[in-house]
Amino acid sequence: MESFLYSVQNISLSPRSLLTVGYTGGRNAKPSYESVCGGDGHTEAIQIEYDPEQVSYDSLLDSFLQGHQPMRSKAQYKSAIWYHNDEQRKIAEQRMEETGAAPVVDVDEAKPWYDAEDYHQKYYDKQNCTVM
């Protein structure tokens, strides 16, 4: 499995993909929802572990771009893609340039990941909501 991080809720993945809500990119080694809201530098994000034999990196970027309205914001809500290798970086940067999203979507090297609290995991399922 490979990992892909980005801050968006709306994606379509195979059942074998694992989605985890969490925090990344900040300076607090033990972030919580409260510390992130307080400005500790972390971004609320989704980590996707996926099988590249079933889901391509390009299709993840397509989902990101189709289901997300990129904008500049404070760190908690910034539009970003965190890459894990040089190939992901090059593909993400090229796609953001091609689509005009580069000025508002950060493409950064993956930083340490921290799972969000349990009550944030599968939030939409728990609320009986669907994400379009």
From TrEMBL:
Record has Oxidoreductase as a keyword: yes
Signal peptide: none
Keyword line: Oxidoreductase
Pfam families on file: PMSR (PF01625)
GO molecular function: peptide-methionine (S)-S-oxide reductase activity
Enzyme Commission numbers on file: 1.8.4.11
Cited InterPro entries: Met_Sox_Rdtase_MsrA_dom (IPR002569), Met_Sox_Rdtase_MsrA_sf (IPR036509)
UniProt similarity note: Belongs to the MsrA Met sulfoxide reductase family.
Identification of the protein by name: peptide-methionine (S)-S-oxide reductase
Lineage: Eukaryota, Sar, Alveolata, Dinophyceae, Suessiales
